[in-house]
Amino acid sequence: MSTATLAAKPAGARDPLSLVFAALADPTRRAMLTRLRSGPVTVSELGAPFDMSGPAVSKHLRVLERAGLVARGRVAQSRPATLRAEPMKQVAEWAEEFREFWDQRYDRLDDYLRTMPDDPKDDA
Amino acid sequence: MSTATLAAKPAGARDPLSLVFAALADPTRRAMLTRLRSGPVTVSELGAPFDMSGPAVSKHLRVLERAGLVARGRVAQSRPATLRAEPMKQVAEWAEEFREFWDQRYDRLDDYLRTMPDDPKDDA
User: Which site from A9, A101, A106, B43 is most exposed, i.e. has the minimal number of CB atoms within 10 Å?
Assistant: First the structure.
């Protein structure tokens, strides 16, 4: 039995960072965010490269909005979508905490090589 | 009609980066990865802080393994889980592409403030 018990959260009650990661777990949504780096676009402009229906584009946009990665404008009926990149900073910071382990495989190889005896030929 | 049409991928045929983001979209799995930074652990050690059944822990571990974030050892029955942080580098690099937009809101505020007339009191 553990003193510090962390209960699993029920599905649907996701924390903000989980919403961001879930929104990014789709290549179409990631491509939409990359497209939005060029500036705000309407739903039809955003959907054009994907051969996707308006409702399908809107559904992806709602996932991105819920994660705080996109904001919708109030310009008449077009409601252009705008990139909100602040949550991306949290994603980068979270991943950066593992930076020391990214190249660990090579570090381990270096350690292994250091334990190897010198090449016998060097002693000749 | 667009010249470059990108078909949406069917569900279940996820690309590697989507598998990584999906694996990270859960606070329990993120906590498990943080725990694994201290070194390899068995399934029961990994599950202890979460008050979670062995099968539930194994299910989370399979999601992490499929994403390439965890490797399982071959030590007798214990099969300790080890962190594999290489995919985290891709996550960080992907998010980093949005760095110029992280503080954009403040940049825009600066631009706006620069267009404001000087305080009338300064003219008195």
Answer: A106
Which tens digits make up the pLDDT trace of B19-66?
999 999 999 999 999 999 999 999 889 988 888 888 999 999 999 999
Nearest-angstrom CA–CA distance, B80 and A50 = 43
Q: How far apart are CA B25 and CA A25, in angstroms?
A: 8
Q: How far is A42 from chain B (nearest CA, A)?
A: 15
| Interface mutation vs chain B, best among A37, A98, A103, most B CBs within 10 Å | A98
CB of B11 within 8 Å of a chain A CB? The answer is no
Separation between Cα atoms, residue B29 and residue B46, nearest integer Å: 10
Phi, psi for B20 (deg, rounded to 5): -65, -50
Task: List the single best residue of B5, B24, B60, B106 to mutate versus A (max A Cβ within 10 A).
Answer: B24
DSSP assignment of B8-65: PPPTT---HHHHHHHHHSSHHHHHHHHHHTT--B-HHHHHGGGT--HHHHHHHHHHHH
- What are the tens digits of pLDDT across the range A111-121? 555 665 555 45
A6: nearest CA partner in chain B: B50
- Shortest alpha-carbon distance between residue A45 and chain B (Å): 10
Task: Write down the pTM of the prediction.
Answer: 0.76
Cβ distance of A56 and B89 shorter than 8 Å:
no
**Tens-place pLDDT, residues B89-120:** 999 999 999 999 987 655 555 555 566 555 54
Q: What is the phi/psi pair of residue B91, to 5°?
A: -60, -50
